[in-house]
Specification:
single chain, mainly beta
């Protein structure tokens, strides 16, 4: 076999191999998209949570479609809204969510490696135990509440299971934003260490601003220091 014949055979083999790979859809000129890890989530029944999905792709002109599924939708169902996941907590238990992103290249590596995270759904905590009217010097443990009034508006002070001190009311009040009257309904406001009225920044006839003070103790309980 002479040199020219050998070169011709090698060229034919290389060309045939290229055709075979092309016909099988193998391509290396598309960058595979990647999804950043997503932390495990803990929700309560009937909670809805939005989780952004961050996609990295060196092909900056690519667009992406997000796909997600739950292995236990009766516990936690999943839907897509733009570049975010929407988790709906249905009942207690755990579910594993699997997420992928697909670019618009139509090539074999257009789909990212799957990212998974776990959703735990818990039952909501029981309502706080009512200990009666709030009194200066009273100490409340997590799960306990008391009530006081501001201008005949009842306000409940309670300590939640995360050891936060919280106040809630059904009162609707008005304030001004950019010189315009606005009606606001603040259902509850929580603080981590101290309640001074400054844990909510909106002013007006907000009863939460009125002379109430409570502080957190080392054991997680809260003591009331001042009542309107």
């Amino acid at each position: 076999m002479n040199r020219e014949t050998l070169i011709s055979i090698i060229t034919t083999v290389i060309l045939f191999t290229s055709i075979v790979f092309a016909s099988c859809g193998v391509s290396t000129d598309n960058a595979q998209p990647e999804i950043d890890p997503i932390d495990d989530q803990t929700l309560e029944i009937n909670d809805t949570r939005r989780i952004p999905v961050n996609i990295t792709d060196t092909d900056i002109d690519d667009t992406h479609i997000i796909n997600a599924s739950s292995d236990n939708p009766s516990v936690a169902d999943i839907s897509i809204d733009g570049d975010s996941l929407i988790i709906i907590a249905n009942t207690t238990g755990t579910a594993t969510i699997t997420v992928t992103a697909t670019d618009d290249s139509t090539q074999d590596n257009a789909i990212s490696m799957p990212v998974t995270f776990q959703v735990t759904v818990n039952a909501p905590p029981p309502p706080p135990i009512d200990t009666g009217p709030c009194v200066v010097g009273m100490t409340l443990q997590p799960g306990e509440s008391c009530t006081y009034a501001v201008d005949q508006v009842p306000i409940t002070f309670y300590v939640n299971q995360d050891n936060q001190g919280c106040r809630k009311t059904d009162h609707t009040y008005t304030t001004e934003i950019f010189g315009l009257p606005v009606t606001i309904n603040v259902e509850f406001v929580c603080a981590d260490e101290e309640i001074t009225g400054e844990e909510i920044n909106i002013r007006g006839d907000n009863p939460f601003d009125r002379d109430f003070h409570a502080s957190k103790n080392r054991d997680g309980s809260w003591t009331i220091d001042k009542i309107p």
